[in-house]
Amino acid sequence: MKSHTILAVACTFLLAADAPQKPSFRTHETVAKAYYAQVQRAAEEEKKADERRSKAMRSETPPPKMATGTIVDRQGGAIPGARVVIEREASDEALGEGTTDATGRFQITLSTQSYKGLTLTVTKDGFNRWAVGGLEGGIVDCRVRLDREVDDQFLKSLIGEKDKETKLWMLLEIIGDRQFSKEIGDLFPHLGMLRRDLLDLVQSKAFAAKDGRYSSPAETACFLLAYWHDPADEPVFNGWLKKQKHIEFPKNTLAGETITEVCTQWADHHFPGKKPEERTLNTFGSPLVDSTGDHALVEFWVEYKYWGYSQWLVLTKQQGKWRLRFVAEHRHWDKAPQTEDK
How far apart are CA 57 and CA 165, in angstroms? Predict the structure, then answer.
């Protein structure tokens, strides 16, 4: 009887070992809690700053001659040595400048109290330049978050990072709320190496809440996964993709042996019934192709006399053929008409 019990326990153990294990998202939940706490703090600080500015604008007393604040990173850590410049708005006249101390604080005496609106600019190596104008009533206890500069060096460090928590915080520099978003063309060559991290972040559901004015980190991760467009990931990003009004799905399958062949088909589709010589100026940029040679991104420019636009073409290669997955609006521009000399 005893041997049967031992055998049953052993079988149960083996079955449990063979059963598929649910991924653990504990690290995602830990980082998300700290991340959204910083988001909430930033919102509260901004609200207080708006109230101070509103009160100062109604006051008859001169604005403060001292500008004070703190410069932090995405995790709320102090950034020492950041250069802070304060200018009179519109005239760009410098009223004071300085650097942050070891705690990220700055305290700058302004050259005058005779000002209305101010522009605050912060720079630091390894971070994007931060600037904001229209600061009326002075700068008092202003809290500024700098975004990391997402260049090739940063992306290589992110891809090679082994610590899960550190890697998540670095990933949030790309998919979290930023003053200036990173262009998909710059990120595309690296997406294959980040695919697993983006999938885990979405599937953790820890970053589904919005962290800024537009979207959530999970939605931005879906955006990147859609542009990479691994067919295996469609259940993850398809819901997001179908909600986007700026994306077009070709009604007919556009496919070919080469990227150029598919681009030519798209141009024919885009200008129906027109021969190439009858179309307005249009051209395709050099394809961005990943290291596997199976994913590509191409920009398509169309230009009229006084306006124009560009689109991103997302392509994948399967069974030796390139296929157009979707087309997304990218840039729009206007050109003022040239005045002819009389």
Answer: 43
Which residues make Cβ contacts (< 8 Å) with residue 313, sequence separation at least 6?
262, 263, 266, 284, 297, 298, 299, 300, 324, 327
316 burial level (CB within 10 Å; 0-12, 13-18, 19+): middle
Q: Within this chain, do residues 320 and 266 fall inside the same structural domain, yes or no?
A: yes
Distance between alpha carbon 104 and the CA centroid of its chain, in Å?
A: 25
How much is the pLDDT for 257? Answer: 96
Q: What is the pTM of this model?
A: 0.86
Domain that holds residue 270: 247-334
Q: What is the pLDDT of residues 56-79, one digit of tens each?
A: 777 777 788 899 999 999 999 999
126 within a domain of the structure (yes/no): yes
Q: Number of folded domains in the chain?
A: 3
Please determine, for residue 201, whether its predicted confidence score (pLDDT) is greater than 70: yes
Do 149 and 178 meet the contact criterion of CB atoms below 8 Å apart? no
- Does 55 reside within a domain? no
Asked if residue 211 and residue 264 are part of one domain, the reply reads no
Q: What is the pLDDT of the chain when averaged over all its residues?
A: 89
Do 190 and 229 reside in the same domain of the chain? yes
